[in-house]
Amino acid sequence: MAEYDYLFKIVLIGDSGVGKSNLLSRFTRNEFNLESKSTIGVEFATRSINVDGKTVKAQIWDTAGQERYRAITSAYYRGAVGALLVYDIAKHATYVNVTRWLKELRDHADSNIVIMLVGNKSDLKHLRAVPTEEAKSFATENELSFIETSALDASNVESAFQTILTDIHRIVSSKSLEQSADPIRGPTSDTIPVAIDSSTPATGSKCC
Amino acid sequence: MVVGDFEIEMERAASTRTTVNPDQGSIKSDAMELVDDPFHRFLHSPQPLPEPRFNHRMGHSPRSSDAEKLLRESSIRTNRRIKFIDCLSKDDVNISELRKLAWAGTPNDLRAAVWPILLGYLPLPSNLRASTLARKRGEYSSLVELAFARDRQGLDQQIWHQIEIDVPRTRPGVRLWMQASTQRSLERILYVWAIRHPASGYVQGINDLVTPFFQVFLSAYIDSDPEEFDTSLLPSAVLNAVEADSFWCLSRLLDGIQDNYISAQPGIQRSVKRMAELVAPAPLYVHLESQNVEFMQFAFRWMNCLLMREISVKNTIRMWDTYLAEGADAFSQFHLYVCSAFLVKWSEKLRQMDFQGIIMFLQSLPTQDWGDHEIEMLLSEAFVLNSIWHNAQSHFNAK
User: Fold this and answer.
1) So what's the ipTM on this one?
2) Model confidence at B331: pLDDT above 70
3) Does the keyword Lipoprotein apply (chain A) (predicted)?
4) Are residues B70 and B200 in the same domain?
């Protein structure tokens, strides 16, 4: 079962309807559904990929975008080492809300969480409401990585996940050289799932 | 299945002539009478209900034991139908008698009359029904008028925005729900409900809860599969009636589970916790714990959408026959026992799985082939759990 070197927990967050679930299904099952049901609470999927010669298993929690679900979904930020903060390039309001989502992460997630800003629906070129450059400089200012994707035509989806998982892996492997943090046992494996924040308790931690 | 066909045959025979449009579905010819009186068809029908035509249906000589079994089953159905109609024909419906009958399932063609009574939307005395219906529908249409009096800018933007996103995502791929006229109805129902309930507003998943009501009320007026029906064909009086009745019944249902949808969703938190307590004695519980599976990770949705993401609308409709018969708090109380029984049902499989397997499995359960039988098994298990627990509670309390 445990044929991987690292297990990274990632959360997908962002406003309702920006395409979080489709990004996930594109990445984990290569599927896209134009009319999928809304996500209620959280949904879960995984995929393993190769990063710098190591097998990294991404355990991804897709969250409901509606404000009312925040109390439930923010519980899932705990232990996450990465977050994809998604907005819709054709809906400016979803980009404006990115600031609120960042605050959510600051309040509920580990302080060292790696965050990637994702402008989804890049196929909607004629409807673009958020200029790429604007989002890119916002990302730089806030020390986020940035990418534009289309879950519909699959462009950059693979790359988005590959990039964030690589970033996390580099941080984790350089850390483990510095300090021999106790490995944290995941519920499913006998290998080492990793939390970046080494202050995370090693026992009794629920990976999810 | 012959028994199923047989029932459809009876329902066809019971209905009057229809306007047939094979592509888009057919409206019953007495649809307009039905708008004013949902009981019209089976209470004031000029000829008595047709007797089942056994000989005709059994024409292809099945083995005699099969034939006897079918005969027995269909006569049970017929008897149940007659009991329902007897009960509904009283000047003053005996609600406990109706509950008792509906617990075991309501015949398809009687549901649109039975559900509103069980929900308290329609009054028990028959002489008050027509005036109540007219009043409630009028009330709904003025609520709609008021809510949409100004242009789009006059709407509560936050609520409207979420509804606009979710309406096209309601039963995606199902013809009925992909049509503009159905979607406009759904928007109005959700928006009017939301602004009347500011503590919760519209919460994702409430859209799912409209669909059983809408389909049940719609089916009363048509002779074809509601999920394939084009609602733009309906006379506006009929569509308005379907929409208003769905709205009021949804409101009644949600009244009992408001806490599920207010800030921090305390109703769901409570229900999930309680469900875990109910499952705790089962060996499955230990396994889930050992795998660090938390009930919140899967049961949240079971509470938020009343299992509608786990089973079909057809299954849900059968389930709600029983919930509505159980009474006002069934959607928060009896539902817990149903969820517990539902989880335990998969014990054997789940106990072989690890964390990931469990979560993935519970996220897309193999219920696609479920029919009334599976739902009825689940309901009886929930009933047993309920009684055991209540007896235990009173036992503890007595000490």
Assistant:
1) 0.85
2) yes
3) yes
4) yes
